[in-house]
## 1
Amino acid sequence: MSSPCDPANASAGDVGAALMVVDSRLKALYDGTGVPDPRQQELLNQYAASLGPQGIEALVDGACTLIYMFMCWLRAAYEDHEKDPIEEVVPSVVATMRMMPKTFRPEVIPTMAGLLVAAGTGLSPNLWRAQYGRWTAAEMNPLEATAVLLADHINRITGDDHEFATRLISNALSQAERDEDEDMVEGDVRADE
């Protein structure tokens, strides 16, 4: 039986823009300053300012898609070692959230943990969240930070390769684009016959 939270029913959103934001935050984290590059931050701010309500919604959906993709990768990686991905990821990420009270107010931590569990069990994080109403402004920074924490978790377990998680998604997006182009060519060939 299909779930209303099945990822096939979810909008992928603007994954590229969400990945750009996560990558910027990771670089700031790894350079030791914790502060994003001013030029890149200015570009991100300009981009965010240019988005209308639909663009913001697409960016939120894109962040949820990143969380889903990261958790799928982590699930496969941990299950290969006969470990439970929920048990391995969620407590660690939640503990980090609790150490960041300016980003993660106590009342948003259960929602972010729920997103991780939903994604870790194969559900769409954005559809899971939609069951409880609209996103709140207080959840926007925690959503972004949750995606960053997952990317950092992946980077750490892959031998501190600071770009592994970003490459993982970039490669998946490139492959999806190639597959889409091939499908279009095949469709054109069938239409010509």
Note: Residues 11-192 form one domain.
## 2
Amino acid sequence: MSATLAWRAALLSPLLLPLAGQARDGVRVPSNPLYQQECAACHVAYPPGALPAASWRRLMQNLPNHFGTDASLDPAAVRQLSAWLDQYAATGRRAQQAPPDDRITRSAWFQRKHDEIAPRTWQLPKVKSPANCAACHTQAPQGVFDEHDVHIPR
């Protein structure tokens, strides 16, 4: 690895890790097979650091009406997932304000990170919406959202 690349990686790592689910505040975010099974069955398993704990709590309490879909789970699964999401939810600036409707794509950090994306890009057939992270972030299923792994479909 070149010195420049290593320096760049060192600078970017603290910014990317909380979102990527790799670590938060120096603590590794463990994978959660139940989260992968239940949530990734319908959409990218968004990293817990993408939303503040209060947002995750509201989402988990309203699973029968999860953005227009019944995503109900048994009470034990809800308890387990809620505890994991709460433990690894966003901290710092990202946690200060819940995004409108608890939508990751409406959060200030998401808007800031995607401000250079043309509105028509979100409407491309292979993209469909800002919530379809995996359309552009090639490593999204692995929880990695590094801008160097972005490929915007045509």
Note: The chain has one domain: 3-149.
## 3
Amino acid sequence: MRHLLLTTALLGGLATPALAQRAGTYAVEGQGADGSRYEGSVTLAPLGQDTWRVTWRVGSDSAQGIGILIPQGPLLVVGYTMGGETGVAAYAVQADGRLLGTWTQGQGGGIGTEVMTPGGGTGGAPGK
């Protein structure tokens, strides 16, 4: 049990600063459940300890979300709304700062994927 607590504490201590240092704008590239590809930008802004405001801009579309960092992954899990629909995304936080994600949205469901890369991005085909 002590080993599990120590491991959890170490992972938590490493994951939070890594993501905190990467608050800002990310380039995003993804693929919807229907196979359509898109690109744009995402902004991550800290709200508190392990909580984030996430804003996507893809073409003329935008989405707003709130996320929590789960240090044991580390994972960033985000609930969001876009065009009146609710969605959820989960991102594996990589050591190089990239976020590798899987998402679903709306009643039709389906699974999309996306990659966020620190450093910006613009425009692209609509669709998350």
Note: The chain is about 15% helix and 55% strand.
## 4
Amino acid sequence: MTAPENDDAVDAFAEVVFDRLIGGIEILSIYLGDRLGLYRALAGSPATAAELASRAGIHERYAREWLEQQAVAGFLTVDPTRDATQRQFVLPAAHERVLADPSSLVYSAPLARMVAAAASRLPDLLTAYRTGGGVGWALFGDDARDAQGDQNRPWFDSALAGALASVPAVHDALSRDGARIADVGCGHGWSTIALAQAYPSASVDGFDLDAPALESARLHAEGLERVSFHHLAGERVADGREAAYDAAFVFEALHDMPDPVGVLTALHRAVKPDGVVVIMDEAVAEQFTAPGDPIERVMYGYSLFVCLPDSMSTAGSVATGTVMRRSTLARYAREAGFRDAVALPIEGFAAFRFYLLER
């Protein structure tokens, strides 16, 4: 017998779904504010609808609707008693750090871009789910590419050096005179640049298969002579570079790669026997548990819409997905010739965990 329609559990779950609807709509409203420059136009300077339209170059009617929606959502503040044309909307300083300050560790506007990128490929995702195919990273476009780069940049800029310096074995390898470092899956290059800036006697090679991201990386690194970028798959890093590197890193990319064992095997060959190989990936739980915590929930979300379809767009992919648990990484590491993958004592680095691959 089915429960009656007014059952408390039914009503409670219907409310949960409605709350998720609101969240989805509001994250897309953040996308508009981010991509149209509306938050930046409001940063430190309240505006009426007409003033915002003028500053950002958008239509005044849309400006008024967006401003009112943002105030109703609690993202902006406003005096609702004033005449509609005279209302000045304010982006509070705390909200500015989250929505309009790309140097802030809590900068979150890029998250909306990743959601929008995934939503733009829903027809392709439906086909992939039915056929077992995939949706390659390039198809998600600049929204996804820029979102990943911009989201991670403040952490690499301000926290990576300290995090690595806190682990003596890693710091010592990076501090060698004339050290060579490989950064595999470098994307926009912010991790590559951060490594070069933190260790001024080292040279750093960034590797990636996303040509547009590498173009951006080269622009970002302009003037840094010790940084080079290469359009090359991780599986080929050791080609002509046997035992060339003192250290190698894969920052939030191994779970996307169709052949992680091949990549780690290449790093095992490319890094000197006394060097270090460090993997930074998502700080997911040790084992599957349901329901999960917010980190598990968001990582499975990324996996459904971006990471798993991207990986499966390559024939023969092992299809790891975003939720790569330590046991999975350790298995890949052992298959590649390492002894184990050991979590490093680096905490509070966004939603990431660092692993040292032991020889």
Note: The beta strands are 180-184, 203-208, 227-231, 245-251, 271-282, 340-343, 352-358.
